[in-house]
Amino acid sequence: MNQKLRVGLLGAGRIGKLHGENLAHAVPNVELYAIADPFINDDIRQWAQELGIPQCYEDPQKIFEDPTIDAVFICSSTKTHADFIQRAAAAGKHIFCEKPIDTDLKKIKKAIEQVEKSNVKMQVGFVRRFDHNHKMVHDTVASGVLGKPHMIKVTSRDPDHQSMDYIKVSGGIFLDMTIHDFDMVRYLAGSEVVEVMAYGAALSGAGYEQYGDIDTAVVTMKFENGALGVIDNSRAAHYGYDQRTEVHCDKGCVQVANDLNDMSMISTAEGVQIAKPTWFFLERYNNAFIAEAQAFTDAVLFDKPIPVTGFDGLQPVKIAYAAEKSLKEGRPVKLKEIG
Amino acid sequence: MNQKLRVGLLGAGRIGKLHGENLAHAVPNVELYAIADPFINDDIRQWAQELGIPQCYEDPQKIFEDPTIDAVFICSSTKTHADFIQRAAAAGKHIFCEKPIDTDLKKIKKAIEQVEKSNVKMQVGFVRRFDHNHKMVHDTVASGVLGKPHMIKVTSRDPDHQSMDYIKVSGGIFLDMTIHDFDMVRYLAGSEVVEVMAYGAALSGAGYEQYGDIDTAVVTMKFENGALGVIDNSRAAHYGYDQRTEVHCDKGCVQVANDLNDMSMISTAEGVQIAKPTWFFLERYNNAFIAEAQAFTDAVLFDKPIPVTGFDGLQPVKIAYAAEKSLKEGRPVKLKEIG
Amino acid sequence: MNQKLRVGLLGAGRIGKLHGENLAHAVPNVELYAIADPFINDDIRQWAQELGIPQCYEDPQKIFEDPTIDAVFICSSTKTHADFIQRAAAAGKHIFCEKPIDTDLKKIKKAIEQVEKSNVKMQVGFVRRFDHNHKMVHDTVASGVLGKPHMIKVTSRDPDHQSMDYIKVSGGIFLDMTIHDFDMVRYLAGSEVVEVMAYGAALSGAGYEQYGDIDTAVVTMKFENGALGVIDNSRAAHYGYDQRTEVHCDKGCVQVANDLNDMSMISTAEGVQIAKPTWFFLERYNNAFIAEAQAFTDAVLFDKPIPVTGFDGLQPVKIAYAAEKSLKEGRPVKLKEIG
Amino acid sequence: MNQKLRVGLLGAGRIGKLHGENLAHAVPNVELYAIADPFINDDIRQWAQELGIPQCYEDPQKIFEDPTIDAVFICSSTKTHADFIQRAAAAGKHIFCEKPIDTDLKKIKKAIEQVEKSNVKMQVGFVRRFDHNHKMVHDTVASGVLGKPHMIKVTSRDPDHQSMDYIKVSGGIFLDMTIHDFDMVRYLAGSEVVEVMAYGAALSGAGYEQYGDIDTAVVTMKFENGALGVIDNSRAAHYGYDQRTEVHCDKGCVQVANDLNDMSMISTAEGVQIAKPTWFFLERYNNAFIAEAQAFTDAVLFDKPIPVTGFDGLQPVKIAYAAEKSLKEGRPVKLKEIG
Questions:
Q1: Residue C304 to residues C122, C176, C297, C309: CA-CA distances in angstroms?
Q2: d(CA A221, CA A197)
């Protein structure tokens, strides 16, 4: 392999462009060489030119069959992920794949098998693991200075409602939104979820119930190592992106508050105002996206372990299905009941 | 009734003395006139003298039969509460009773019935409702400025393990410790709990499991108004008394952090240190105990509604039994299954 | 001396009553035996009765000549302090005197001399030294863990304007308000002020300038130990009592923020609001007043050193005069130019 | 002019590279076309190639004489700034110049005159004005919601000592370090400094005194609008880059705390630890550097006012000289005494 990782980008939508810009500017040792998007147009071509990307394709096959390309970033629509993984792996390319791999457990497993068979590396895009705050919680727990983890808590609230058009096809809150938190609790606990109990309700009046969905959830769980966990979700915090994590351990507690827009405090007779949390994931996880791409690049170039594996991509989907089943049946559901 | 409320104090243990000192010094319009304690001794007599309490008895009956006494503070051992309530109510005395009224639901109900029949007022000692922090959360929610409550969260961790001798007879974490939090979620939600799911484990290594007890719990619940709730407990936070509450509503979130020993920050090359939370309930709820006694006094003297009623004393015990049942049977339990 | 300190209280105005209540209820080992106030009336007599104070006088001489009284609390108007100190000391009584001892340096010195001659103890009421926050800063610096102090910073802002009637006779901001901060910087630096430079202005529009006074001040100073200091004052913060201290040292910095009304945070689309600082000195320094009286009592009963001496009462007055001179003459003024 | 601003970069040292990378990647509408550095070498050429900079020169004249270049970024050593400004302006190029323009007031004035004569725009690199925190303070004050400013406070402490080799030639703390704060107080006050009083000392033991320099300073000042100001400096905070600003106004106060490495809190029996401030200016003002280059680009391309003018570059140097004079002569110095 070259000293630089030559990358092909699959999909130039919002998340694809985000990765593209990071790969072009913020991640050393990467050469962003080609993009492929079935909806390629002049805007995308111009964007590619400005980033200095030499090749623009409509057909992803051009990327898979280019022997000079070392790795792909799969940022296309979810339903294409599993197929692209298969083809990329078969072509011997290392893979960064946005989450989720798929919503079909069988397809996920087949994709993972192909990756293993092809002896390539694959990283799944659970970007929050690379956030400075959550990583601080993880690293403190993993270091052992606080002893064993007893309780893992995740608060995860979006700033505002998605459109009902989006909700209609989102797959439900657990697969669409909580999936990040299911990954987070595994990451923080250092252990597998064995049982889930989900409470949820449509309380906001925005209309989630008409699609059988909810806007508010509290999901509790047990981990293999005995720890307990709880995730609370809201589709609409209104004050910004509320993303807090906390782990209580043998010897104490590590927690993180939200990143704020600034560190200001304005004090008057009317009250004391501080800054709001950053608005959404682009603001909050901006640096995490860079760190995630960097970690993938380093793992491939220097043959280091992948920090978020295919298995890490599979588990949150299973937990999401368990949570769905729990909510529907009004009882705790064991992970082994799923898949 | 006099302009001052003449009070008899039943029980001069730790909590009795605490109330006694507040009644003597910090609550205007109260005359602390008598105490009764079956273990009365010279120390207690001297303590009473210093507070200027004229009468010291061994037998509580002396207080019940004194027609000049308007109200009693029942601070004796839990098993005496229901009986003392009955006798005090029958004697026409208003009653402040430490929590819990009893652990037997039937006895609680009978005590409440007697109070109603006797047309006296009774307040139960869920002191946390009078804490400036939790009250701020409650009042904000109750004011309606944030719209309807969606999610009620309570973190409640004791600073350190009780002795195993205590645990052995404590009645279990839900009746002994979480009971305060069951009251708190009702208070914050402004609604009744209808279903509970409890997870719990003995993780600390301190030995709770040998008494069938746990040291770590996560309890989720549904409220009549549709809101969801979660309580997390630990018997040993180690860093102090961790008492945080949070309510997420239609339009945003109100939450409170812990009171700290001071507002200091020490910054060096080694790190930045801030103060620990206050150590335990005596430090944290010091002013709340005064406010609670004040509220009772005002309710009686000025015929205002009692802020924490007999029914408020009953419900947390029912929720605690539901949580116990849930933990044992590994399933959500409806409140109507209890009692 | 008795096991309890028998105290006579001189002056039953706002600050006298505050000390009286603390002595009666919150400070063990004190017997508040008598009060004297030239304006004694039924209200004061009733207040005294409620506190259980046996003797109420119009004439302070009754207290000075009562051989059973061990100590006096001088809480009368400033112009009486020096005389009362003389008479109390001559009568062999230990003295707690509210600040300032006097505004006349000669009178202060004479009072101190009498105290020394009479071999009694005298504590001056610089109450902020007993605040948990400022004490934390002092103790950290004094412990030496941060090395030598380099810079002492005090922010001290009153919540709102005093009436102009008050300002007219206040003696000016430095003697009336900054005097507390002059004591604070000495306390925190552990060293004497040697030079002062004062800037000040009447910026609020409330009318201080018509009495030759100012509402905003920034005073810098040099200490004997080489450290530098700065105090900033405002007569009207509007958001509460702003009382922050900070010391930067060899190895880092210790600072304290304000006590707040509660630890709440309310987050909505409109913004994030936290609680305001406590409103004024009664709220902020409530516990400090108790600790100060306790310290005096302990110093007398157990013959421990007085924490705030007559010399500590003298120095801030000298610094205040130096600051006044600096402001008037537009130049730094050395302490040795004063008195 | 093109739709893109074609820029030549003068100087490819640490600060030049920082600007170069921002211009190449983070600022839209810029074409970084050429660099010139008298010490150009293979490393710089490779760096330029990676950024896609077409031209690399040793001689800056190549940039001045290239008619296709619209603007220059002067990031060379301070002693070259004034000359480069003259030449760039004469060649009709817009100028971004790192601070300070020069340390010689006459040279600064001549450079500004040339800029005015040539009718080009010039922005001086006081980057802190573009920091999200300080900008929040400025914007709040400038909006008028708090009324007139009364007091401007700046805390500015470097994380650790520079080498004594650096200090020897630094020009002294006021010209080297406090100059940023002199700009900041003008920016926050919205008014000119009219008088300065400086206290300073070498307290750290690192040896500043051997070069006639100091490591600790407290500088107070008066503004034309009547407000008062204070800056406190330390060369070695040890805990990170301490950069706080605060303005107290008619109706209240706006202040900003430091950006922290993360929002974590770790609580154990030993204490509660939060994150340290970001280490130094590269971490703290990273985004501010981008915003500053963006502001310059926008000002030129869209003919908007320059946010930091030549006059803004001149004034802090004058204030620095006034502070130096004040420290030497032990008296307040008026700005009009300088230059």
A1: 12, 30, 10, 12
A2: 6
Answer for the pair D245, D188: CB distance below 8 angstroms, yes or no.
yes
Residues of chain A contacting residue D49, judged by C-beta atoms under 8 Å apart:
none
- Whether residue A307 has pLDDT greater than 60: yes
Q: Which site among D153, D155, D195, D203 would you substitute to test the C interface, given the most C Cβ atoms closer than 10 Å to its Cβ?
A: D203
Residue pair D307/D135 in contact by the 8 Å Cβ criterion: no
Distance CA A190, CA A32 (A): 34
- Whether chain D has a CB inside 8 Å of the CB on A203: the answer is no
A7 strand-pairing partners: A32, A71
Q: Which string of DSSP letters, residue by residue, matches B24-43? A: III-TTEEEEEEE-TT--HH
- Res D120 pLDDT > 70: yes
Residues 6+ apart with CB under 8 A from C83: none
Closest to A96 measured CA to CA, from A284, A294, A320: A294
Residue B64, SS3?
Answer: helix
Instruction: Please say whether the beta carbons of C7 and C14 come within 8 A.
Output: no
Q: What angle do CA C319, C322, C327 make, to 5 degrees?
A: 125
**Chain D residues inside the 8 Å CB shell of A262:** 132-133, 136, 256
Amino acid residing at C159: P
- Give the start-end residues of each E strand in C80-141: 94-97, 122-124
DSSP C42-69: HHHHHHHHHHT--EEES-THHHHT-TT-
Neighboring chain C residues of D148 at a CB cutoff of 8 Å = 203
CB atoms within 10 A of CB B135: 20
Please report residues of D whose CB lies closer than 8 A to that of A264.
133, 136-137, 140, 254-256
To which residue do tokens 């406590």 refer? Answer: C278
The torsion angles phi and psi of A77, rounded to 5 degrees, stand at: -70, 150
Segment A155-185, tens digit of pLDDT = 999 999 999 999 999 999 999 999 999 999 9
pLDDT under 50 in chain B at which residues? none
Stretch (H or E) spanning C294: helix C286-301
Interface test mutation site (partner A, options B199, B209, B241, max chain A beta carbons within 10 A): B199
* Spatial CA neighbour of B177 closest among B189, B160, B190, B153: B160
Closest approach of chain C CAs to the CA of B338, in angstroms?
Answer: 35
Please report which confidence band the pLDDT of residue C2 belongs to, taking 50, 70 and 90 as the band edges.
low
pLDDT digits (tens, 9 = 90+) for B75-89: 999 999 999 999 999
Q: What is the average pLDDT score of chain C?
A: 97
Spatial contact of A31 and A73, defined as CB atoms under 8 Å apart: no
**Among B residues 142-161, those touching chain A with beta carbons less than 8 Å apart:** 148, 150-151, 153, 157
Dump strand ranges (E) for B224-332.
228-234, 242-249, 252-256, 264-268, 271-274
In 3D space, the residue among A125, A146, A133 whose CA is nearest the CA of residue A16 turns out to be A125
Neighbours of chain D (3+ CB pairs under 8 A): A, B, C
Cβ neighbors of D95 (< 8 A, separation 6 or more) are D71, D72, D74, D85, D88, D89, D115, D120, D121, D122, D123
* Cβ contact, residue pair A264, D254, below 8 Å: yes
**Residue A260 with chain D: CB contacts under 8 Å:** 263
What is the spatial distance between Cα B254 and Cα A241, in angstroms, rounded to a whole number? 15
Chain A with chain B: Cβ pairs closer than 8 A: 107
Q: CB-based contact (8 Å) between C232 and chain D?
A: yes
Best CA proximity match to A266, nearest among C160, C268, D140, C155:
D140
Locate the DSSP E strands across chain A. Answer: 5-10, 30-36, 55-57, 71-74, 94-97, 122-124, 149-157, 193-201, 216-223, 228-234, 242-249, 252-256, 264-268, 271-274, 333-334
ipTM of the complex: 0.96
Pick left, alpha or beta for residue B156 (phi over 0 → left; psi -120 to 50 → alpha; otherwise beta): beta
